[in-house]
Amino acid sequence: MVGVSQAVQSRRSVRSFLPDPVPAGTLHEILELAQLAPSSSNMQPWRVFAVTGAPLADLLQRVRETAAANPRGEPPEYPIYAPDLKDPYNARRIACAEDLYGHIGVARENKLGRLMHFARNFAFFGAPVGLIVTIDRTMERGQWADVGIWLSTFMLLAQERGLSTCAQAAWAGMNRTVRSALAIPDEYLVYCGIALGYADPEAQINTLRIGREPIESAVTMIGFEEAAEAR
Fold it and tell me: What gap in Å lies between CA 185 and CA 42, rounded to an integer?
């Protein structure tokens, strides 16, 4: 089992999985530990639905039927991106997509190829376990951040145990179908999905590494020089 720093460094969004099942005991252990993730006033506003086997196959069949009738999917219950996403965020989003499609040889003008790859979101990229992460729809922005903390905790715990993940906002665009298939109460808003399983080591797409900005672009350190001089 790897340590936290190793899990952070090795974690990546995996988009091709082996069919090997995830032991139920391992998943239960990860979920139990992820429940320790911090949240505002310990409200724990997340509600997670983990699915595998025949129920997962049924969900994916329903999603295929929805996609066949409506290729654009269903309207998300929340805006995934800001309507006028500014730079540098929009530039990073575009660069991420270009890196991904370029890595698998799908040209910008190949609209069908890009749509076909995007559609693989709704098969959890072949993962044997899919998780649907929801949040009580009465929650405010602070509690949405709590769900993000839970997601990061869960994915690092999975990485620590040799499992791979891909967090997928795309599932918000299949919220009605997902809600019906998994009997999710209306009080919970479908936030995202997570593909979980063992990465296919032969898949070209899994060799993609997306870079990160230097910390200077995200962090301002104040007063540390003076503190160092005072020691």
Answer: 22
Q: Could you check whether the bond before residue 128 is cis, i.e. omega within 30 degrees of 0? A: no
CATH number at residue 19: 3.40.109.10
Q: Is the pLDDT of residue 137 over 70?
A: yes
State the Cα–Cα distance between residues 46 and 28, nearest whole angstrom.
16
The total of structural domains in the chain comes to: 1
Q: What is the value of pTM for the model shown?
A: 0.92
**What is the distance between the alpha carbons of residues 221 and 123, in angstroms, rounded to a whole number?**
43
Q: In which residue are the tokens 């080591």 written?
A: 201
HSE-CB of 50 using CA atoms within 13 angstroms: 15
pLDDT tens string 74-89:
999 999 999 999 999 9
Strands 164-168 and 46-52: unpaired
